[in-house]
Design brief:
By secondary structure, this protein is mainly beta. It is built from 2 helices and 16 strands.
Length: 142
């Protein structure tokens, strides 16, 4: 087994239950989300979205397994697995997909067989920048 394959089995980033992250997240390897994430998630490895996870973000990685709620686009260079507890409200682009009975997907699913189609479809779903929070403006007119 090559060194790169061994690295993919260790979890590099974990967002645990009862944890909320606001902002974009970039991970160098395997990422697991069991909490809440609002911001784009870009991983150079696998991504697992746990059953209790609630994500409002675009997700990209090599292989993405979804057991919770994802409100955003999903781009996986290898495959997407949607478990029976999974809900995706967004578009999916991948090379292979597995959807368990009972899962819900509301969006367009694109499965690319050639590198050319993959490049085109993945470019169309690049992560969107999240809007910056607006600071409240307080005026004193008196």
């Amino acid at each position: 087994m090559s060194a790169n394959k061994r690295k993919d089995f260790s979890i590099n980033t974990i967002i645990g239950p009862d944890t909320s992250v606001y902002g974009d997240l970039e991970s160098g390897g395997f990422t697991r989300v069991d909490g809440n994430l609002r911001g784009n998630l870009t991983a150079r490895g696998r991504v697992v979205v746990g059953e209790k996870a609630r994500i409002k973000s675009d997700i990209s990685g090599t292989s993405i397994t979804i057991g919770g709620v994802v409100y955003g686009n999903v781009v996986a260079s290898e495959r997407v697995i949607i478990l029976s507890t999974g809900l995706v409200l967004g578009n999916i682009v991948t090379r292979r997909i597995q959807a368990d009975e009972g899962c819900l997907v509301h969006g367009r699913v694109t499965v690319c067989k050639t590198d050319e189609k993959w490049d085109q479809a993945a470019a169309e779903l690049q992560p969107r920048p999240q809007p910056e929070p607006v600071s409240p403006v307080i005026q004193d007119n008196g």
